């Protein structure tokens, strides 16, 4: 069941439990340095490593990274192939350290539609890290929030058709239980790098009451201090959830 704020006033402020990041700016980082876009994606993978290392040190329990959207298939075939190559390289090179650091992996999105060799590595990583109890690293792969909501609505319609569910019983919790994020708390904080200020079809349901931080820092330059500053901004805000 999705975690929701308790009624009756603002929640007690603390470090965000769940931080989600839209990792944007790899291409612009490369262009500014007259490098191929692939170089920007490679530098972005280093930023992923920094974020995963920093998150548990500042009290983050869940870190969700928007790695590949369902719209990213529209990019040039060569670039898409390079992104999948980076994903496979990351899994091979980082899995032992993730395991040593007690990181648990979860995937959201239609990730089984990725190339078969990538799916195989992802399944192996999920199995190896399944017993860990530290930071939950959630990677959004082939993910789109509208697609997620359509899938949930279709599933509820099927259950109603089959007599498993009375449509009158469908509420927010019932719908949330059909989302990819069913066993995760909603993100407290959503960060987008590179200066763009939009959600780009990312966690539209789950981010209904998230605090949003937009930073001009390009993702490959995003470091530990940038993550700390974003969390400090979150902590300084008063979350009202529509109340006074």
From TrEMBL:
EC numbers for this chain: 2.5.1.-
CDD domains given in the database record: Cis_IPPS
UniProt cross-references to InterPro entries, sorted A to Z: UPP_synth-like, UPP_synth-like_CS, UPP_synth-like_sf
Presence of the UniProt keyword Protein transport in the record: no
A GO molecular function held by the record: ditrans,polycis-undecaprenyl-diphosphate synthase [(2E,6E)-farnesyl-diphosphate specific] activity
Record-level GO cellular component terms: cytosol
The keyword Transmembrane is assigned to this record: no
One BP term from GO: polyprenol biosynthetic process
UniProt signal peptide: none
Pfam families: Prenyltransf
Binding locations of substrate: 25-29, 37, 41, 69-71, 73, 75, 192, 198-200
PROSITE patterns reported for this sequence: UPP_SYNTHASE
Co-factor note (free text): Binds 2 magnesium ions per subunit.
Binding site for Mg(2+): 24, 211
Active site per the UniProt annotation: 24, 72
Gene3D superfamilies in UniProt: Decaprenyl diphosphate synthase-like (3.40.1180.10)
Cofactor(s), by name: Mg(2+)
UniProt superkingdom: Bacteria
Keywords: Magnesium, Metal-binding, Transferase
Protein family: Belongs to the UPP synthase family.
Function noted in UniProt: Catalyzes the condensation of isopentenyl diphosphate (IPP) with allylic pyrophosphates generating different type of terpenoids.
NCBIfam families: PRK14830.1, PRK14834.1, uppS
Subunit structure, as described in the record: Homodimer.
Family annotation (HAMAP family): ISPT
Name of this chain's protein: Isoprenyl transferase
Origin species: Pacificimonas flava
Source species taxonomy: Bacteria, Pseudomonadati, Pseudomonadota, Alphaproteobacteria, Sphingomonadales
């Amino acid at each position: 069941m999705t975690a929701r704020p308790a009624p009756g006033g603002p929640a007690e402020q603390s470090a965000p439990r769940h931080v989600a990041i839209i990792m944007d700016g790899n291409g612009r980082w490369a262009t500014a340095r007259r490098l191929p876009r692939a170089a920007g994606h490679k530098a972005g993978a280093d930023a992923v490593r920094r974020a995963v290392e920093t998150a548990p040190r500042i009290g983050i329990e869940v870190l969700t990274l928007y790695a590949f959207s369902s719209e990213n298939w529209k990019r040039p075939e060569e670039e898409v192939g390079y992104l999948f190559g980076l994903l496979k390289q990351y899994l091979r090179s980082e899995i032992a350290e993730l395991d040593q650091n007690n990181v648990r992996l979860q995937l959201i999105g239609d990730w089984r539609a990725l190339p078969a060799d990538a799916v195989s590595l992802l399944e192996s990583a999920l199995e190896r890290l399944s017993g860990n109890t530290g930071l939950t690293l959630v990677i959004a792969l082939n993910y789109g929030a509208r697609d997620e909501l359509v899938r949930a609505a279709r599933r509820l319609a099927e259950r109603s058709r089959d007599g498993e569910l009375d449509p009158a019983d469908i509420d927010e919790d019932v719908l949330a239980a059909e989302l990819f994020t069913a066993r995760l708390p909603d993100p407290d904080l959503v960060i987008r790098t590179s200066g763009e200020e939009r959600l780009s079809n990312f966690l539209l349901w789950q981010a209904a009451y998230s605090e949003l931080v937009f930073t001009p820092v390009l993702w490959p330059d995003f470091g530990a201090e940038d993550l700390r500053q974003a969390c400090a901004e979150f902590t300084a805000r008063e979350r009202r959830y529509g109340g006074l």
